[in-house]
Known about the structure:
- This protein is α/β, with parallel strands linked by helices.
- It has eight helices and nine strands.
- Helix 1 (19-29) packs across helix 7 (210-223).
Amino acid sequence: MGVKICLTIAGSDCSGGAGIQADLKTFAAHGCYGASVITSVVAENTSKVISVYNVPADEVRKQIDAVFEDMRVDAVKLGMIPNVDVIEAVAERLKFYRPPFVVCDPVFEATSGGALSAEGATKAYEEHIFPVANLITPNIPEAEAFTGMNIESVSDMCAAAKWLCSMGAKAVLLKGGHLKSSEAEDVLFDGKETVLIKQKMINSQNTHGTGCTLSSAIAAGMAKGFTLKEAAISAKDYITKAIENSYVVGKGHSPVNHFYAYWDKL
């Protein structure tokens, strides 16, 4: 079958730490070939979002067609899908091509604090993306936006993950990084079983692109034949080490080190 191919459909981060750029680095670090569809061009850095220029929905469709007409796509990662028109376009093309695995990381806000999705996006995700995604990977604020819950504990996370599945998600990995804890604990719920995935909490400001990187690592694991549980645990280990071995780039939240396993420690 040759190299495994992963496609990211997401926004572009010109500073290189998140979005398309983080996804492609993650795919490469996992031995997968990465293709990309750009939904938005974001002028951002480690400190702030300056501007957002969204790609028209029809151009997003054409990019998706260009990839699927030429390549066998083993897994898809969805990141920033900025408005309802693009959400509907992405969902329609994924329904048509039916890739083996789709993970959606619903990106509503940048690590540095800028809004990245238009009003109405949460409802559109529920109506159009949940049905085509095999897994969604919200953080706590995003899960709160979907469910209306106030999530303050791991128990709340478990309840929210189940609620999201009742809303149409096939499986949920709810990320617990926003909880104040000595452990970084995520909740994986596949519609039947709840699994708690724990790693040590790394005290670091170098967290730019963590959500993008985690979901892309899951996509790469699934492309390589892992089970969902295996892919989630492996991705959690990868992002923890990428944060632990990160370095300072810029004046704000620096990115993680996607290639920690290949570079000498900086």
